[in-house]
Each structure stands twice: as structure tokens, then as C-alpha cells.
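Severity: low
Component: inverse-folding endpoint
Summary: output formatting inconsistent between runs
Steps to reproduce: submit the following C-alpha cells with default settings.
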């Protein structure tokens, strides 16, 4: 393999599972260096192989459904000890709510509980368990990259209230970086329009973006803490099928599905003359299904588009995956019929970056039910810990073998 270009070697290694990579490190010193020390390889391997899609009830659930991007189409599920609700996912971190607010990194096992009761704009939670789903769109979650190894998280709550002029709304913003809540000095007053139904805010290029029903976008910059309204219109007439607001390649993206074609639009010239520009057309995989009950697009990134389908012929729901590079559909996995139908999908890619504000680390012997439930979710999302342990043992064994060879060589000389 030494004669192959570096990028081609990486492409081959990206197709191997963790156990095989562990064995590869025993065969060659250059492989061991590439797999253990190259930060690019680690991050890219996690994004390709470690990425997954998970599904959880919008109303808080003890059940989490996990679907890996690659490998088997079998679905893994988990029952936690207490009910958890996912409010956001960004750069390998999760924003969770379950008997309190929590930010967690499943890969590093670090987390932090936050006191939401001291917030002015965080939605009121009367039963201490679930944030009403109608108000979850008011909560933005973002992770900033400080350098190659460090990140920081911010939670932004937005609330609209009646302005002085009839038919106008004034938006206020509140920020949490781990220690406390503080109100932003910036406000935005504009023509009234609600946020899109079940449309989560999107983080891209340093700003959180909320899509409104009139097609305009409310943007809040996390560095300057200034907000503005991006005036734009939908590229087509409103559809009965749910659209998807997302981000890819540092650009806001709008997935506009129809029964025959799924249109992908990118927002161009956001600061000067914002317009939705057609990027791709994808033939709908469920267009000819006669026994269809419902379908909707659930997730999108630079490599895949994911679509959920429910029909009379299959027990449970099918999640289809469209490979943008190969231009073809495939089955990603299945959601059992006993899972709640009113749920949210989240993309998750593990990150080993250190995050400012996440100080506590999970302890296996902790008796706190919140910690135990959090630990279970983390194990589900970052893979099988026994495989990681085996890979570590293989790396250790290969080092010992190298040391033994060197010692024997010295003895011969």
C-alpha cells in the first residue's frame, strides 16, 4: 500500500470497521501513525463511519431509535431510565432535557447540567419533564470552533411579543454559555409571522437561523450577538408535504419535496440579495407506492438525504437513504411500529474536540438516575465500547511486539 497515493489509502481505510482498523495497526508502523496520530483521519473517519441518524419522541421518551449510516440496516433501540427529550444536536454535542437541561458529548463522555429555571425566555415547563414541542423551535443550540481541538457551546432562546405597531412582532434573545443566562441587547421588530411548524433553527457560518412561515429568516450572530431579518421568499408555492430547513457546505438549504421530485435549494447572496437557487432534483423513491400512508424528508447533509415512509405493506416505518455521490436510493433502516409516531430525527457525528464548559465526566458507578440514563444514550450513539476496548488492546499489543523486536535485534548485535 506504500505505493498508493495518501488520499486513496484513506478511502480504503474509511471503509473498514473499528475492529479491522485495530488489527491493521499491528501490521505496519506507518498505519499505526496514520490511525492514531493523524487528526484529519480521526475526524473524517468519525464523520463517515461514526455518523448516524437517531429518532426520539418529540414529547420526551424513554426510547431512542438508532440507525447507522453504513453497514447493517438493523435498528438498535434503547430504553433509558428516565424520559429524555432532544432539543438540539450540533458538532458532536447534544442538548437534552429530562428533569433538567443538559449539554453532553457522547464521545468524550463529558456533560454539564444547566439551571433553566433562571432563564427569562426558556419555555415554561410545568411537569419538569418535557418542553412543549410548539416551543422547542424557540431554542437554538450551536457549537463554535475555537481552534483545531477546542470548541464552545451556546444556547440561544428567542421570544416574540407584540410590538407597538399593529401586525408587528419584536424578538428578544437570551444566551447561555454554561454559567448563566443573560439577555442580549439586540432586538428585531418586523411584520408578524410564526416560525415554521416543527422547523428547528439551523446553525451555519456563526449564526443561528429561524425560518418563518412567510419565507423570511431570523438570524442571530453568536459572535457579535446582533440579529437581523433576512427577507426572502419561498422558491415554490407552499406544499402540503413538510419542507426541511437544513445546512450543508456552509450554506442554508431548503428541501422542497413533492410526490414526484424532491427539490434541493441553496440560499445565495444572503447579505445582499438573498435568493433560493435550485441545486439538485431527486426522483422521489415513494412516488409509485399505492399503499402509502405518509412520507416525509427527515434529514439532509452533504452526502445523504433521508426519507421516512409508512405504508400498509411494512410493519413499522422504512427510512430510505439517497446517496448524493452515487445518485441512488437504498434502505437505511426500519423504525419499529411500537415507537411513537410523533418524533424527531437528528443527525449525529461524534467529535473528540474538547469543549469549554463541559467539565464533568460520567462515572460508571454513579447512582444518579439522570447520569445512568445519560450514560446509556452516550453508549448507543458512539458505538460498541467493547470494540473500542479491543482496538486499544490491539494497539498496545502491537507496541509491545515492536519493543520485543527491537530488544531481540540489540541482543543479536
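Observed output (run 2 of 3):
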Amino acid at each position: 500500500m506504500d505505493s498508493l497515493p495518501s488520499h486513496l489509502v484513506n478511502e480504503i481505510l474509511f471503509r473498514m470497521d473499528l475492529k479491522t482498523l485495530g488489527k491493521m495497526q499491528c501490521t505496519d508502523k506507518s498505519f499505526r501513525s496514520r490511525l492514531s496520530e493523524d487528526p484529519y483521519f480521526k475526524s473524517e473517519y468519525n464523520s463517515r463511519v461514526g455518523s448516524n441518524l437517531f429518532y426520539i419522541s418529540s414529547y420526551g421518551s424513554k426510547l431512542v431509535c438508532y440507525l447507522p449510516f453504513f453497514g447493517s440496516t438493523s435498528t438498535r433501540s434503547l430504553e433509558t431510565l428516565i424520559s429524555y427529550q432532544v432539543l438540539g444536536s450540533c458538532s458532536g454535542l447534544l442538548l437534552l432535557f429530562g428533569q433538567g437541561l443538559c449539554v453532553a458529548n457522547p464521545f468524550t463522555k463529558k456533560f454539564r447540567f444547566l439551571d433553566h429555571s433562571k432563564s427569562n425566555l426558556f419555555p415554561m415547563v410545568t411537569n419538569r419533564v418535557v418542553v412543549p414541542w410548539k416551543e422547542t423551535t424557540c431554542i437554538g443550540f450551536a457549537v463554535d470552533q475555537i481552534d483545531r481541538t477546542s470548541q464552545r457551546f451556546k444556547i440561544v432562546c428567542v421570544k416574540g411579543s407584540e410590538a407597538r405597531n399593529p401586525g408587528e412582532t419584536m424578538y428578544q434573545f437570551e444566551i447561555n454559555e454554561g454559567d448563566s443566562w443573560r439577555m442580549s441587547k439586540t432586538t428585531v421588530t418586523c411584520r408578524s409571522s410564526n416560525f415554521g411548524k416543527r422547523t428547528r433553527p439551523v446553525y451555519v457560518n456563526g449564526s443561528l437561523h429561524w425560518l418563518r412561515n412567510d419565507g423570511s429568516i431570523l438570524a442571530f450572530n453568536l459572535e457579535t450577538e446582533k440579529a437581523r431579518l433576512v427577507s426572502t421568499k419561498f422558491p415554490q408555492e407552499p406544499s402540503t408535504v413538510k419542507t426541511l430547513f437544513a445546512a450543508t457546505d456552509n450554506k442554508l438549504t431548503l428541501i422542497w419535496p413533492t410526490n414526484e421530485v424532491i427539490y434541493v435549494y441553496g440560499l445565495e447572496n444572503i447579505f445582499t440579495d438573498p435568493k433560493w437557487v435550485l441545486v439538485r432534483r431527486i426522483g422521489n423513491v415513494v412516488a409509485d407506492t399505492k399503499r402509502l400512508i405518509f412520507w416525509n424528508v427527515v434529514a439532509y447533509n452533504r452526502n445523504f438525504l433521508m426519507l421516512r415512509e409508512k405504508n400498509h405493506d411494512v410493519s413499522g416505518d422504512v427510512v430510505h437513504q439517497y446517496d448524493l455521490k452515487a445518485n441512488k436510493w437504498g434502505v437505511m433502516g426500519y423504525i419499529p411500529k411500537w415507537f411513537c409516531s410523533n418524533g424527531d430525527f437528528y443527525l449525529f457525528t461524534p467529535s473528540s474536540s474538547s469543549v469549554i464548559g463541559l467539565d464533568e465526566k460520567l462515572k460508571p458507578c454513579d447512582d444518579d438516575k439522570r447520569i445512568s440514563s445519560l450514560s446509556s444514550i452516550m453508549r448507543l450513539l458512539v458505538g460498541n465500547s467493547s470494540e473500542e476496548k479491543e482496538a486499544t488492546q490491539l494497539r498496545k499489543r502491537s507496541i509491545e511486539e515492536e519493543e520485543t523486536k527491537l530488544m531481540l535485534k540489540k541482543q543479536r548485535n
